[in-house]
Design brief:
140 residues, alpha+beta, six-stranded antiparallel beta barrel, 16% helix, Pyridoxamine 5'-phosphate oxidase, Split_barrel_FMN-bd, Pyridox_Oxase-rel
Length: 140
């Protein structure tokens, strides 16, 4: 074990904020956790980072668009190698907002974020990364 490596109570390596953001940038899919009719809901989404913000593209009338407007949400992305028993997980908590400004929407449309789901996806949700935490398992 390396000197100064911080481990959590389960023995997983605690990732720095910078490591978390770098790993998030490598993940093609994450999961957004939001409240839908007073119940927790989780939805997989593709995303891109815009600085420290997470950007998701969806449809205007979607359940996700309605539920995340000015709400606090959680976002999680991970990668695991089950054979090597290695992997990482990063969780972000922050305020989600719908992008209503046409100039900002046009700028975000230029990001490398192509929706995987069929249909028009011209509505953007931006999540401010206010709390970021991550863990890594390095095999055993």
């Amino acid at each position: 074990m390396l000197e100064g490596m911080k481990l959590d109570s389960a023995g997983l390596r605690v990732l720095s904020h910078e490591e978390c953001m770098n790993l998030l940038a490598t993940a093609p899919i994450g999961r957004i956790v939001f409240t839908d009719r007073a119940l927790p809901a989780v939805q997989p989404v593709n995303f891109v980072l815009d600085g420290a913000d997470i950007v998701i593209r969806t449809t205007v009338g979607s359940k996700l668009a309605a539920a995340t407007r000015r709400a606090i949400v959680a976002f999680e992305a991970d990668a695991f190698d089950s054979e090597g028993r290695t992997g990482w997980s990063v969780t972000v908590v922050g305020h989600a907002r719908a992008v209503d400004d046409p100039a900002e929407a046009e700028r975000l449309a230029g990001l490398p974020l192509t929706p995987w789901a069929p249909g028009s996806r011209d509505h953007f949700i931006v999540i401010a990364a206010e709390q970021v935490s991550g863990r890594e398992i390095t095999g055993g």
